[in-house]
């Protein structure tokens, strides 16, 4: 059975390790700049170099880069990723350590979501108070110019409410 050109392109090519930074970055789904950044942070260590000084990445390095990319996709901080990487490499770890980090991250995400929802409600209120016409007065700009973080009723809405 003949292989079509389309099928041939999908077949993974055998790779000869170690690989240069561009190949490592491509296989990890990140840029070469990010590879260098993660290395500078100490997340990837012991990268070999050629006599010409070019970085050479092993299959384990690329796997670690994929781990970092996935952790970043889930919103973990660099400090959390460093801790998770350490636990990933520590075969004597307790999974409770990893779970604690993930649970704290969920708590932090919930806090950020609540803050963003509050911002959204405030902006929706301000937008609803703005006539959006040709006149220069704008409750959105007035609120921003007030410099006050309004945790309750936005200034623009207070202006539009009857006196209390």
How would you explain this protein's 3D organization?
The chain is mainly alpha-helical and 164 residues long. It has helices at residues 5-10, 21-28, 32-40, 59-73, 78-89, 95-129, 139-146, 155-160; strands spanning 48-49, 55-56. Strands 1-2 form a two-stranded antiparallel sheet. Helix 2 crosses helix 3 (32-40) and helix 2 (21-28) packs across helix 4. It is elongated.
Task: Present the secondary structure layout.
Elements lengths: L4 H6 L10 H8 L3 H9 L7 E2 L5 E2 L2 H15 L4 H12 L5 H35 L9 H8 L8 H6 L4
Antiparallel strand pairs: 1-2
Features:
60% helix, mainly alpha, disordered C terminus
Major β-sheet profile = 2 strands, antiparallel
Q: Trace the largest sheet across and list its strands.
A: 1-2
Count the DSSP helices: 8
Order of helices and strands: HHHEEHHHHH
Task: Write down how many β-strands occur, each being a DSSP E stretch of 2 or more residues.
Answer: 2
The whole-angstrom Rg is 26 Å
What structural class is derived from the secondary structure elements?
A: mainly alpha
The average pLDDT score comes to: 88
Beta-strand percentage range: under 5%
| Approximate helicity band | 55-70%
Low-confidence parts? 156-164
Distance between the amino and carboxyl termini: 83 Å
Silhouette? elongated
């Amino acid at each position: 059975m003949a292989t079509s050109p389309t099928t041939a392109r999908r077949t993974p090519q055998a790779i000869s390790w170690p690989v240069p930074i561009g190949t490592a970055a491509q296989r990890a789904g990140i840029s070469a700049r990010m590879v260098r950044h993660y290395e500078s942070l100490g997340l990837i260590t012991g990268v070999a170099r050629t006599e010409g000084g070019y970085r050479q990445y092993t299959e384990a390095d690329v796997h670690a880069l994929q781990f970092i990319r996935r952790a970043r996709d889930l919103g973990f901080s660099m400090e959390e990723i460093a801790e998770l990487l350490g636990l990933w490499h520590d075969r004597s770890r307790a999974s409770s350590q990893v779970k604690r980090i993930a649970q704290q991250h969920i708590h932090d995400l919930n806090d950020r979501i609540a803050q963003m929802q509050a911002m959204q409600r405030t902006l929706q209120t301000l937008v609803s108070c703005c006539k959006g016409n040709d006149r220069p007065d704008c409750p959105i700009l007035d609120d921003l110019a007030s410099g006050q973080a309004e945790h309750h009723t936005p200034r623009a809405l207070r202006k539009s409410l009857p006196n209390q």
